[in-house]
DNA sequence: CTATGACTACCATCCTCCCT
DNA sequence: AGGGAGGATGGTAGTCATAG
């Protein structure tokens, strides 16, 4: 095998200049840290002025990221990176939400002055600082990089760009990229190849169906199951998942013999892989341990987590993942109990807070992302009739937003059955509209991303779970039952622009209530700024059938 | 040769019902 | 009231047939 440290062919990257590898923060981040000390409104305004001067091409507002770089975790002294949206003016502050209340408070008052504070780090539109941070992994003592953030913080973007850069710099790097479901794997593969080709300025040409340089992008199950030894007796029932569990128990050398070794390992939405953990006779086996075993520690080991998703999904987490997440308490408890979950965020905020015993609070109310409009319809006896009305509402939304030049719509349901019903209904209804539309599912969208024909409107109809990890500018949640917070969170967090809920009166009312609480109690300062509907808001009004 | 859809298997989760 | 069993639904995977 080629020595990864040996000299490589000179390859100039066409976009970014070679940055100095350093442990400290880039200068502008230090400046931002100074400007935002105390995190008061006036300091933020000052910081924004500074940013507008530094980045004149960017006027859309702020993203705030929180780093616990200075926490001095005994496990990973290097760095950890926590991201969360605070607000984004470009979409009229609509995306403030989907944080639980305590998180939102934390974001506005991250830490007391003088304590070991969470560092508010400004990340410019292209997330350059996060990229640099990942890039320093190779030269750093601890090569592990964990990015935890709510949806939309750019975790996936950082992953694809970092992987593409590594491959563009050296084709021979053995890079492994894993995630949970197939649509996301397809998307990641396409994005990495696209980005890599761009960096190489078109000099890379795949040869004869070759999948490119030595990058493996797949789902965890497919990657692991692919090489799981088959059952010795073909007639015998073969449970591949059981076989996988046996693989998880193997030791490092055996694993390397089966899977080979990789210099760079990237895992997106990695919290979902905890499904493959198991506990046998008191001994737990973990996907994380397995992947660490096939990592040769010459490159970076990159994980992205969505902590809030952990809250909702009730996922079992082993000690190893707990270490990665950097919480001092029993994360299993943290995850299972909504009243404790905010502590995992506090744990990142300051050492004092982390070590302090936090009194039991009432469960923080799970708050909704501000919804553009809810479109309720009755759904009781004959569901199909009522869902027909729902589809009419969806068509209205699509018509309205096409006038605003939106070309991609995402409609998410709970079940596949409802998804196909909506798909059929839309096909009939949209055939009457003048624009061409193509309906597809999440996997098809991921496969053809970036290759849309001019003027073509794409409408994705799929289940929420299958769309996990992907994002859309206009998302319509169709017929999600109220009270299903995990699903609601997943669905809402898929939206980067306008979110609609088309559903039962109960679900819509619940959404309105949550938004009301959110506006009045969590972000009053932001809510006050938009008394009248901002420009660009739809002219649709509440519809009650 | 490749993409797609229909079918199957297995496991996880949630909800409901029933028993203690 | 609390816990367990069972059903419905979701996810993943695989195989096979078919169409382009």
Percentage of helical residues? Answer: 25-40%
Beta strands, count = 16
Low-confidence parts, pLDDT < 50 over ≥5 residues? 1-45, 54-127, 206-212, 229-239, 326-385, 515-545
CATH C-level name of the domain at 373-528 = Alpha Beta
User: What's the CATH architecture name of the domain at 373-528?
Assistant: 3-Layer(aba) Sandwich
| Average residue-wise pLDDT | 54
InterPro entries: P-loop_NTPase
SSE layout:
Blueprint (H helix, E strand, L loop, with lengths): L26 H9 L5 H14 L9 E4 L13 E4 L16 H8 L10 E4 L5 H8 L8 E6 L5 H15 L5 E5 L2 H18 L15 E5 H8 L12 H9 L3 H8 L4 E4 L10 E3 L2 E3 L1 H7 L7 E5 L1 H7 L5 H7 L5 H6 L1 H12 L1 H5 L17 E5 L5 H20 L5 E6 L2 H15 L6 E4 L1 H6 L9 E7 L8 E7 L6 H8 L2 E10 H18 L1 H5 L17
Parallel strand pairs: 2-4, 4-10, 5-6, 5-7, 7-10, 11-16, 12-14, 12-15, 13-14, 15-16
Antiparallel strand pairs: 1-2, 1-3, 8-9
Helix pairs in contact: 5-6, 11-19, 16-17
The protein binds a DNA duplex (20 and 20 nucleotides) through helix 7 and helix 8.
Key features?
6-stranded parallel sheet; DNA-binding; 545 residues; P-loop_NTPase; disordered N terminus; 39% helix; elongated; disordered C terminus; 8-stranded mixed sheet; alpha/beta; Rossmann fold
Structure characterization notes:
This protein has 545 residues and is α/β, with parallel strands linked by helices. Among the domains are: 152-305, Rossmann fold, CATH 3.40.50.300; 373-528, P-loop containing nucleotide triphosphate hydrolases (Rossmann fold, 3-Layer(aba) Sandwich). Helix content is 39%, strand content 15%. The protein has 21 helices and 16 strands. It has an eight-stranded mixed β-sheet with strand order 3-1-2-4-10-7-5-6. A six-stranded parallel β-sheet has the order 11-16-15-12-14-13, sandwiched between helices. Strand 15 (472-478), helix 19 and strand 16 form a beta-alpha-beta unit. The structure holds a DNA duplex (20 and 20 nucleotides).
